[in-house]
């Protein structure tokens, strides 16, 4: 179906499928009401909106496309609400080149790439949607895109919840971001979003991960029950965190490493397993008015109790403490040994202090020649990781 030249039809309860191009194509300031259709199996986007077209797209199923679900570009608009967009090969919805659609109360799920993808100055509003179970991130924002993302539930992403990169912006407000396989929110490469009053929780990795020159203003968020650090700040990044609550984490509350810094004011950081605020060597954030209390401080307890740090971290977490290398045992540049293993297992060896940073202990992991005297069961993992694995980024596609 093509809609063009200010046309304004009603397209209702049709089966639109297996086309060699797209399903519905709206351009040249087209309008139209498109509702209760089943749009699937098309070679290009199920619905494409471009050149200031402004349709209403409501109650459709848009699925199993060989390409993406809904493609809005070249200043496309549109009210897109209460659709189910799922199982498409590329992005469920992608928004680019000055487009400003409004997406409300859609279910966007089970795609083979990203859920909603804003790039090259894609804007608009994403409100009250369920975005879940994508192989990439639930939402990606890049290259000058500046959407409003409010009141959504974003979960089950195999690559994380929201990824903001390559100069992405955006206001993320009052969303629930949870149960993602990687960080709830990634901010990297000169991106500068605002996150306000979100709940970011139950992540299988960290809560918010900011690296490679990421910025961002994080205000009044609840960040809790994440497996890795509530907020990890790394590699020349400088975000501002104000009045957040970071708690009940299975690792540290806030970790800053690798020449990063941050402004931390009036945050509450409490009941995190490895400690509240953990700073690597040389890190000097701007701090004021924070309340850091009732953290479990398992790292310090393990060190003072003579335990190997691997005992509390295994190879899945990265406690921050002093780490060393042993030249006698010929460890590699990516191996690290905790202070108690240096004292006990490597006593009398030629050892070198490296820095205070996040790591797991390779001695305790059983990957060095000498058997650890403080720790049992070896693991298969042979490389210490100092940073979380990088998220996958969607590639921009030009489609006419």
Tally of separate helices: 3
| Broad structural category | mainly beta
CATH architecture of the largest domain: 3 Solenoid
Mean pLDDT, to the nearest integer, reads: 93
Q: Shape, please?
A: elongated
Got a strand count?
42
Termini separation: 15 Å
Radius of gyration using CA atoms only: 24 Å
Number of domains: 3
Query: What percentage of residues falls in helices of 4 or more residues?
Result: under 10%
Strand order of the largest sheet: 1-4-7-10-13-16-19-22-25-28-31-34-37
CATH homology-level superfamily of the largest domain: Single-stranded right-handed beta-helix, Pectin lyase-like
Question: Stretches where pLDDT falls below 50 for ≥5 residues?
Answer: 377-387
Largest sheet properties: 13 strands, parallel
Could you tell me the strand content as a percent range?
A: 35-45%
If you consult CATH, what is the topology of the largest domain? Pectate Lyase C-like
CATH class of the largest domain: Mainly Beta
Written description of the protein model:
With 400 residues, this protein is mainly beta. It contains three helices and 42 strands. The radius of gyration is 24 Å and the shape is elongated. The two termini are 15 Å apart.
Provide the descriptors you would attach to this structure in a database record.
zinc-finger; 36% strand; 13-stranded parallel β-sheet; 400 residues; mainly beta; UBR-type domain-containing protein; Znf_UBR; repeat; 42 strands
Spell out the blueprint of helices and strands.
Blueprint: E1 2-3, E2 10-12, E3 15-17, E4 24-26, E5 33-35, E6 38-40, E7 47-50, E8 56-58, E9 61-63, E10 70-73, E11 79-81, E12 84-86, E13 93-96, E14 102-104, E15 107-109, E16 116-119, E17 125-127, E18 130-132, E19 139-142, E20 148-150, E21 153-155, E22 162-165, E23 171-173, E24 176-178, E25 185-188, E26 194-196, E27 199-201, E28 208-211, E29 217-219, E30 222-224, E31 231-233, E32 240-242, E33 245-247, E34 252-256, E35 263-265, E36 268-270, E37 275-279, E38 286-288, E39 291-293, H1 298-304, H2 310-313, E40 320-326, E41 337-338, H3 339-344, E42 351-358
Parallel strand pairs: 1-4, 2-5, 3-6, 4-7, 5-8, 6-9, 7-10, 8-11, 9-12, 10-13, 11-14, 12-15, 13-16, 14-17, 15-18, 16-19, 17-20, 18-21, 19-22, 20-23, 21-24, 22-25, 23-26, 24-27, 25-28, 26-29, 27-30, 28-31, 29-32, 30-33, 31-34, 32-35, 33-36, 34-37, 35-38, 36-39
Antiparallel strand pairs: 40-41, 40-42
